[in-house]
Specification:
The N and C termini lie far apart (54 Å). A hairpin with a 3-residue loop joins strand 2 (12-14) and strand 3. By secondary structure, this protein is of the alpha+beta class. The protein has one domain. It contains three helices and four strands.
Length: 94
């Protein structure tokens, strides 16, 4: 049985050992892990490894979301997920 995942931010989940960024946008699947040590005790004035991993996950999620939302899906992904290549081939035969 997989570990229970808790949603901590938009599309970011915590399973107790790593934060996972997961979303599907315009056919682009994003699934990336940011591991941390749950037993790590930070020194005074230093952030915990959990907080560092969460910040990295939030930055990654924001960057990917902006890339996909504002620039659209890549040309390769778009051509693989549509009927356009099939229709072009069909029209070229005639």
């Amino acid at each position: 049985m997989p570990p229970k995942q808790i949603k901590v931010h938009d599309n970011i989940y915590d399973n107790g050992k790593a934060f996972t960024v997961r979303f599907l946008r315009r056919g682009v699947k994003v699934n990336k892990n940011f591991a941390y040590d749950p037993d790590h005790k930070p020194k005074k004035g230093q952030p915990s490894s959990r907080l560092i991993a969460l910040n990295l996950a939030v930055k990654y999620r924001t960057a990917e979301w902006e890339e996909i939302t504002h620039k659209g899906a890549s040309v390769m992904t778009t051509t693989q997920l549509t009927l356009r290549p099939l229709l072009v081939r069909l029209l070229l035969r005639e």
